[in-house]
Amino acid sequence: MGTSSSNSGPRGKTPLLPKWAQGGGQGASPGSPAPPPPDAGNGDSPPPKPNPKAVPDEVQAPQPAPPLLPKLSGAPWTLARRAMTSAVKAGATVAGLRTAGRRYVSAKGGAKKASSTASAGRATTARIGNFVSDIASRGFNEAARAIGLESTVGRKVDVVLAEVINAIAPTGTNNDDAIARRAASETLRELFEKHGVEQAGLDVLNAMTPGDVTDTIELSVAAYVYERWLFDLSQKIEQNAVSEADAVKLERDVKDFVKGLVKLKLNGTQALKLDWKGADGKKFVQEIYDAAYKLLGGTS
User: Domains of the chain: which residue ranges?
Assistant: First the structure.
């Protein structure tokens, strides 16, 4: 989590994305245009004016979340903020996070309500599931072509990553879209880093196993739940409650806690066969989010 008013997300965790593509800046708004990634250079310099022949117009850098929603009010939210603040001050112990999780889900109206309002998160997880299972089945190039990214073949890794993020979680028009995009960015970045894509090239993803697919889906759900949780409570957390170092530690502790909760009872082979775009895929993703919020809320 970040400590700035824009809640711009984790620091120092996107080495595959150039600095200009990591967001962060003030005054960002949903749907605002972003500069396309360069296809050459050291990856850390601001991009030159786009060349439409070299970079497709639809390629945009991952965007930071828009300004926070008006402060959520009422007794349940007050209790939820107090519980998270206590967890922060206590060093984010498991017991403290469990209490904070229960209070948060209660303030959201229960696990079912929390899951039902995660529409952007569910949609993004389904797209990620479809993409990574396709990679495991047919290879990266075919999976990229299936989502309209034929142009990624042979391009720099950071550019490919930015394009995949745009295809799976395009810049939306509201806070939930922005949160889902940030979670997708984190998930796909971790996928690329886990497999050493920057060092070995995109073909290394062709060796993904069913277990890798399952792990990626789990991370997608956990990343969204984590980002939404801290986003909803960020007003309280960001009031200088912790130092920069403590904030980074809290982010790691909370994310590990949520990831530990979201362990899918899914056979990897089934993940490859699931119709992620159809009714079965939507039903499955809904069940994942239902289970995640039930676990976070201590009701399962």
Answer: 80-300
